[in-house]
Amino acid sequence: MAILWILIGAALVVAISIFHVMNPVVQNISLYGYQIYGVPMWMLVTVPAAVGLLLGILMNLPARLRGAFSERRLSGRVRDHEKTNATLQQRITELERDLAIAQARTAEPPVIVQEVREVPVGTFSGTPLPSSTDIERAA
Questions:
Q1: E strand or H helix that includes residue 34
Q2: Are 45 and 38 in contact (CB under 8 A)?
Q3: Helix axes 2-22, 41-105, angle to 10 degrees
Q4: Secondary structure letter of residue 108 according to DSSP
Q5: Residue 115 domain-assigned (yes or no)
Q6: Number of separate domains in the chain
Q7: How does DSSP classify residue 23?
Q8: 44 Cβ neighbours under 8 A, 6+ residues apart
């Protein structure tokens, strides 16, 4: 981006130089009642352009400063997060190592408990069904 601005500046200098060579005429100007004699034509073009450029830079300055400060603040936060990430990564490595040591000490395979839900035959929702002998006794 800096090269672009250098090229634009160089092009403006060349354009103003050509304008100066092509227009060597001096002008008398009147500005709010003040008379100014013998002002070169190139100065009538260059001074307003320079003032406009300066105003543009000054109007852009607050946004650039705000961006620079926010970038600095955010880069500090990124640095803190990277430090926290490194600490947590180290803690994960330590815990994995401790887990491997604990698993190596345990000779027994781990017990897996699996819950099986089956309704036994002859029951309905856990309540025993009356058997045929119970039905005969009731009759």
A1: strand 34-40
A2: no
A3: 180
A4: S
A5: no
A6: 1
A7: -
A8: 27, 29
pLDDT number for residue 94? 94
Tokens read off for 139: 């009759």
C-alpha atoms less than 13 angstroms from C-alpha of 103 in its C-beta half-sphere: 9
Enter the tokens of residue 133: 């002998």
Q: For residue range 18-68, what is the model confidence (pLDDT) as tens digits?
A: 888 888 888 888 888 889 888 888 888 888 888 988 898 899 889 889 988
Cβ–Cβ < 8 Å for 26, 38: yes
Is residue 110 in a domain? no
Residue at 30 is within a domain: yes
Write down the residue that tokens 């190592």 correspond to: 97
Whether residue 139 is contained in a domain is answered as no
Q: Is the pTM of this model over 0.85?
A: no
Q: Which of these, 40, 47, 12, lies nearest to 26 by C-alpha position?
A: 40
From the list 27, 51, 45, 52, the residue with the least C-alpha distance to 37 is 27
Two structure tokens written together for 10: 């160089």
Q: How far apart are the first and last CA of the chain?
A: 103
Which structural domain, as residue segments, surrounds residue 63? Answer: 2-105
Q: Which tokens belong to 106?
A: 């345990």
Q: Give the residue among 50, 56, 11 at the shortest CA–CA distance from 3.
A: 11
